[in-house]
Every structure is written in structure tokens, then in C-alpha cells.
Amino acid sequence: MEESREFISKMRFFLEDAFKDNRAVLNEFGYNDYAEARKSHVEMQRYLTVLHTTATKYSTELIAVGFDQAAISGIKTTFDKLLNANNAQKYYKGERLTITQQRIELMNATWEIVLNVCKAGKIIYADNPAKYKQYVIYESSSNTGSDIYQGEVAATETITIIVDGITPSTVLTLHS
């Protein structure tokens, strides 16, 4: 989109030079439609198609002010780049579910390896409490390894506490 906008911005200089006194011809090039076209890929594609068709129609006038045939062909090239980028983006959006699934599978496989290493470490260091503790996986994400929290919780803070015995029917009372 950005490349399309830059191309159109450069082209406008030549259009205004060639047709400075003819607003109707400028509108044939889509001057009235550009504000909307610059916001949407689909509209920009439509705009570039109109721009190329009209530039081909008025090629003599454009070439006379320095916008040569290669530049006119550049409109189609810009359109093709935008179309390809848009298609690639749509393809990627469809592919995200597969990529996410693959990432989850890889992370789960890695987690299984970690669990096996920890199990082996507990067996190997069963007689060495310090080394044994290095292979214990705690459910808490806190640095202390404890899920018990006592104290005040700031309004912008979240504390996760896991306590054995809590069921969906357990009633918790929080004090402020």
C-alpha cells in the first residue's frame, strides 16, 4: 500500500502538469476517489486499474510532460505487487491456524522432555536434597515456589494462588 501511495504521489506531479487546467480529465484519473482508495487494498487495486487505463488513454500527453511509457507500465507493476502482497497476506491468515498448531505441538514435545529430565533428576538425586530440589517443578510462577500469599494486593497487581482442595463449589472470601 505504501509503495502504491508513493507511486501515485509522484505521478500526481505529472498529471497536474499535463492537465492543470482540465479538472474533468484529472477526475478521470481518479482524483476524486483517491482519499477512499488509499485506505483499502481492494479500493487501491481498483484505483490503480483505473489509473493505468486512463494513463494509457492519455499516454501522449503524459509522455510530453516527462511521464514516459516505462512509468505508465509502472502502474501495472505497482498493481501486481499490491495484488501479490494482498494475496500473500490472505494466505498467511489462513495458514496461522496450522502454524499455531505446530508451535503448540513443538512446545508440548519440549515440555515432555523437561518433565522426563526432572523425573530422572529426582531419581538420581534422591539422596541429595539440594540437587533434588533443582528438579522439582512447582505449580507456582512466583520466585519463592510458594502459592500462599499474605499481604495487600495493589489495584494494578494480579496474584495467582493455587491451593489444594479448591473446587468449583468452594466459596472464597476476600477482604479489602
How would you characterize this protein structure?
There is one protein chain. The chain is mainly alpha-helical and 176 residues long. It is 63% helix and 0% strand. It has 7 helices and no strands. The chain is elongated and about 90 Å long. The model has no long low-confidence stretch (mean pLDDT 84).
Compile the SSE list and pairings.
Layout: H1 2-18, H2 23-28, H3 34-37, H4 41-57, H5 59-64, H6 69-124, H7 129-133
Helix pairs in contact: 4-6
SS elements, strand count: 0
Order of helices and strands: HHHHHHH
Strand content: under 5%
Radius of gyration: 32 Å
> Can you tell me the residue ranges where pLDDT is under 50 for at least 5 consecutive residues?
none
Share in helix: 55-70%
Overall geometric form: elongated
Characterize the main sheet: none
A few lines on this structure:
Helices cover 63% and strands 0% of the residues. It is an all-alpha fold and 176 residues long. The chain is elongated and about 90 Å long.
Attribute tags:
single chain, 0% strand, 7 helices, mainly alpha, 176 residues
